[in-house]
Amino acid sequence: MGSRPVTVAAVVRRAGVSRTFLYENPDARALVTDAVGQGTPAQDGTGPRLDTPNDTAWRERALNAEDALKAAHGEIRTQRNRIAQLMGQIRDLETQWTDESIERITTENTNLKQRVRQLTQDKRTLEERLQAARSNSRFQDRRISQLEAQLLDHSQSP
């Protein structure tokens, strides 16, 4: 196995991660910087090797972190889209109500309230008249009964 210099491109290929991940992840960037700073591995095996168990664990952590980062970016995109939809709905609701339409609705509301008051008063008046008519009807029924009784009394007397 020949000695090759440690470069970011070599680490990206060997670890199977993106350059963006290496530059955005401080731990990964520090490890790559240290490896590049040490230069090419020595022929006696004292230099850094990318296939040691420690490096394999680092590679797994890097892949897991990159997957988590992709998932987080996807969730952020989803949340931003939802926020944009809700902001659009708010804007739509705000633009529906112009000053003119608000004034028109307020006027209609005032007119309807006045109409309700008038109808309530009319209902009260009609209920009073109905009550008076029922009272008159009961009085008339009693009076008719009294007159019928008097007629019966006069017709039975000799």
Work out the number of β strands.
0
Q: What is the strand content?
A: under 5%
Taking pLDDT < 50 over at least 5 consecutive residues as the criterion, the unreliable ranges are: 40-48
Rg over alpha carbons = 47 Å
* Biggest sheet overview: none
Report on the architecture of this protein.
The protein has 158 residues and is an all-alpha fold. The chain has 2 domains: 8-96; 105-158. The protein is built from 5 helices and no strands. Residues 40-48 have low confidence and may be disordered. It holds the Pfam family DUF6262. This is Transposase. It comes from Streptomyces albidoflavus. Residues 76-150 form a coiled coil. Keywords: Coiled coil.
Summarize the structure.
By secondary structure, this protein is mainly alpha-helical.
Secondary-structure map:
Blueprint lengths: L7 H8 L3 H6 L1 H13 L14 H44 L2 H58 L2
How would you describe this structure in keywords?
2 domains, 158 residues, mainly alpha
